[in-house]
């Protein structure tokens, strides 16, 4: 945690830390504390009276059918996005790992979507699948698919899932490729000499050795799907039609910013905070295991 | 290009009967992957070279038209016309650039100074400071939307570049990254500096900063993309559309999203929003990869 040889000053380090700590306290801990505080208060519609209600806001949130639906919807959405972003990434990384010529070019091209903002990814996919003018929407209709994400909830859900996953493949690709390249080639050669065919080698040797990477990407993917896809949803569906694509984060935003239901929004924020803490702990505990593996 | 040379690829050590198939297949799959990745961008490019009428006539053409230059000139210099009047796109790009650069610079400065304080000094509250910074990882904007908005509003920072950037420049990731790196600097260097009578600030400037150059470059690339792509925060903090970043600006342009939307202009703006961060990834690939991998440790 600390070095053996250090400087003796006492005031200077505090001065160096001051700007970061100031911003941390003002813009992170104070609002975080406010969210906790507001989650146990109830305010009337005009903001004139405030009273302490204990856990009533939480009880209301968990009794709210809309919230529970948003909860399951978010799980479904996150799982779909994570899997859809990981499977092609693994396939592409396995292929890129076999390529000798042009590997750099392939990798660079595959990484570009990482640079695209989630909201922009949403706009790009919305344009292709817009029911009145979208190119792919037209093809779907020509094939007889009744496609209309502005009216049909499950169409809208698929659209936000694909747009979100499309953007995340780049990230998974990079980490899978790094994981594949760290597997000793001698292991694979030994298996090949024993007569194991490529697919069998992949499933019995490569995939198990990749499991730390896979688990890491699973956690990162769920965090991405939970929090960073706000832009995708906001750009394509705004949570609609009705509430068909409303995730927990989108609901907090809507209930707080648009519906001004501060008590409920704060309680929802606190629930999300608990989820972030859980996911972060998972991520960091895992990283230590990865170091151990190496 | 690469596919044409597949026959020259050295045989894999595990070559067997079906050598050629296993050598060509990766290239085919990768080209398919790139095609799927690039398709939405290609469609956007084609749309940006057509007229709104061309796009509205489904299905739109799949080859570029002849209106590209006038479309880009129009959005860059005048902005979107029609039902929603946007500021000129150059202004949105300028806002995004400024925001991205301030966030990048701010995060680097704050996190390198904090890490230096935590690693090279001992003082009361050192661990507390470290944990306070670390815990911000667990408080993303999304879980404290309303109260953070209230703080920024109380400080009078709504609709200002300061409001857009300052609340985002604390960086747990950066601090952890520099801390990790500083722990690897040999003790002999610090001892030598102290024998030479160099104080901590001198040591920072002459030794630590130059040694950190590659880490700073790698982190900057990641942070620039992070800053440029911000969405929820500017959406909350700005109502004055002269402060719109390009990402927020695009979503405002779509409006109701029907055929009346000026799609060629929207898609041109979309590509202009993708271009700077994409160029950063392509031109600084090595640093980008290092930054991405390091910042997850």
Report on this model:
The complex is a heterodimer of chains A (294) and B (297). By secondary structure, chain A is an all-alpha fold. Chain A has one domain (64-293): MetI-like (MetI-like fold), CATH 1.10.3720. Chain A is built from 13 helices and 2 strands, in the order αββαααααααααααα. A two-stranded antiparallel ribbon of chain A has the order 1-2. The longest helix of chain A is centred in the N-terminal third of the chain and has 34 residues, at 65-98. The two termini of chain A are 20 Å apart. Helices cover 66% and strands 0% of the residues of chain B. Chain B contains 15 helices and no strands. Chains A and B meet through helix 1, helix 3, helix 4, helix 5 and helix 6 of A and helix 1, helix 4, helix 5, helix 6 and helix 9 of B.
Q: Report the mean per-residue pLDDT of chain A as an integer.
A: 87
Distance from N terminus to C terminus of chain B (CA atoms, Å) equals 36 Å
Assign a percent range to the helix content of chain B.
Answer: 55-70%
Number of strands of chain B: 0
* CATH architecture descriptor name of the domain at 93-244 and 268-294 in chain B: Orthogonal Bundle
- Let me know the average pLDDT of chain B: 86
Shape assignment of chain B: globular
For the CA atoms, what is the radius of gyration of chain A?
Answer: 24 Å
| Low-pLDDT regions of chain A | 290-294
Share of helix among residues of chain A?
Answer: over 70%
């Amino acid at each position: 945690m600390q070095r053996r040889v250090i400087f003796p000053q006492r005031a200077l380090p505090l001065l160096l830390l001051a700007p970061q700590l100031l911003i941390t306290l003002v813009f992170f801990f104070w609002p975080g504390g406010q969210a906790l505080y507001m989650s146990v208060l109830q305010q009337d519609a005009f903001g004139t009276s405030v009273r302490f209600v204990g856990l009533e806001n939480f009880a209301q949130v968990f009794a709210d059918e809309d919230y529970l639906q948003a909860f399951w919807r978010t799980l479904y959405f996150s799982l779909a996005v994570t899997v859809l972003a990981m499977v092609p990434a693994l396939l592409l990384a396995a292929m890129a790992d076999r390529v000798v010529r042009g590997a750099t070019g392939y990798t660079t091209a595959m990484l570009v979507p990482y640079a695209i903002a989630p909201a922009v990814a949403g706009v790009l996919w919305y344009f292709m699948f817009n029911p009145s003018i979208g190119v792919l929407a037209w093809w779907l209709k020509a094939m007889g698919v009744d496609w209309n994400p502005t009216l049909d909830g499950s169409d809208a859900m698929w659209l936000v899932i694909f747009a979100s996953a499309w953007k995340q493949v780049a990230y998974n690709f990079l980490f899978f490729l790094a994981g594949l390249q760290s597997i000793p080639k001698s292991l694979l050669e030994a298996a090949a000499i024993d007569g194991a065919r490529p697919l069998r080698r992949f499933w019995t040797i490569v995939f198990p050795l990749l499991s730390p990477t896979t688990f890491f990407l699973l956690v990162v993917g769920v965090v991405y799907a939970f929090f960073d896809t706000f832009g995708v949803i906001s750009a394509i569906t705004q949570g609609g039609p009705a509430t068909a694509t409303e995730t927990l984060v989108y609901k907090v935003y809507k209930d707080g910013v648009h519906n001004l239901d501060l008590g409920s929004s704060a309680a929802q924020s606190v629930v999300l905070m608990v989820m972030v803490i859980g996911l972060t702990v998972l991520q960091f505990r895992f990283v230590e295991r990865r170091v151990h593996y190496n | 290009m690469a596919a044409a040379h597949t026959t020259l690829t050295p045989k894999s050590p595990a070559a067997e009967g079906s050598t050629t198939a296993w050598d060509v297949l990766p290239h085919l799959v990768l080209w398919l992957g790139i095609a799927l990745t690039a398709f939405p961008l290609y469609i956007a490019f084609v749309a940006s070279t057509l007229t709104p009428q061309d796009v509205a006539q489904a299905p739109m053409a799949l080859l570029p038209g002849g209106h590209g230059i006038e479309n880009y000139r129009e959005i860059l210099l005048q902005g979107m016309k029609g039902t929603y009047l946007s500021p000129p796109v150059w202004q949105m790009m300028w806002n995004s650039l400024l925001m991205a650069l301030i966030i990048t610079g701010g995060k680097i400065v704050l996190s390198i100074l904090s890490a230096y304080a935590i690693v090279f000094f001992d003082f009361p509250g050192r661990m507390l400071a470290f944990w306070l910074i670390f815990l911000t990882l667990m408080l993303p904007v999304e879980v404290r939307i309303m109260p953070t908005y209230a703080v920024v509003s109380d400080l009078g920072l709504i609709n200002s570049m300061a409001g857009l950037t300052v609340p985002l420049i604390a960086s747990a990731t950066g601090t952890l990254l520099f801390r990790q790196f500083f722990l690897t600097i040999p003790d002999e260097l610090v001892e030598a500096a102290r024998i030479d009578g160099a104080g901590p600030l001198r040591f920072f400037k002459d030794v630590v900063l130059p040694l950190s150059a590659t880490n700073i470059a790698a982190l900057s690339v990641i942070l620039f993309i992070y800053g440029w792509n911000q969405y929820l925060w500017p959406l909350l903090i700005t109502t004055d559309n002269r402060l719109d970043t390009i990402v927020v600006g695009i979503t405002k342009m779509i409006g109701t999203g029907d055929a009346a939307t000026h799609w060629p202009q929207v898609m041109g703006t979309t590509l202009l929003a993708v271009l700077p961060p994409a160029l950063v990834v392509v031109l600084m690939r090595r640093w980008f990869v290092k930054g991405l991998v390091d910042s997850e440790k």
